[in-house]
Amino acid sequence: MKKAYIILLFTLFIYTNISANSGVEITVDIEIPKFNVSEYHAPYLATWIETEDRKTIIATSLWFDEQEKWLKDIRQWWRKTGRNQTKPYDGVTGATRRPGMHKLKLSDMEISNSLVPGQYIFLIEAAREVGGREVLKIPFSWPIDNNFTFSVRGEKELGKITLTINTLQDSL
Prior knowledge:
Elements: H1 2-21, E1 23-32, E2 44-51, E3 56-63, H2 75-80, E4 93-94, E5 100-106, H3 108-114, E6 118-127, E7 133-142, E8 148-153, E9 160-168
Parallel strand pairs: 3-4
Antiparallel strand pairs: 1-5, 1-9, 2-3, 2-6, 6-7, 8-9
């Protein structure tokens, strides 16, 4: 009887951990191009998710330095979600990044709790002082049944942007 009880507890523990860890892994690979200019400033960058009819669902990241006055230059983000937020901007903030490849891991749980089944757009906007501004969009469906990867390439302030949503398999 005692053995059966221990096996049952162990099985429940394993099942609970598998269920808690199943879901998706969401990453964004972001290329910030290098410019050959005398005065270079790292871009401010924001990401968020909207519905097809352009209703903002969730702000997912914001990279900026301490000068909040320039946040208005990330114009679409500012109009959609930024001006209605206060520091720490829903806990999605981070420092600006220099040129190169950067990986952004998004919170699966927060996104999963915010999205209902449907079509969405992942947006990324970059603005750079003494530079330009650019917005890129990646459409996706939610929930996903299979792994999803889609890339877009910027022409001004952003290089290659890749959104990857991987389903996590229930395995030990």
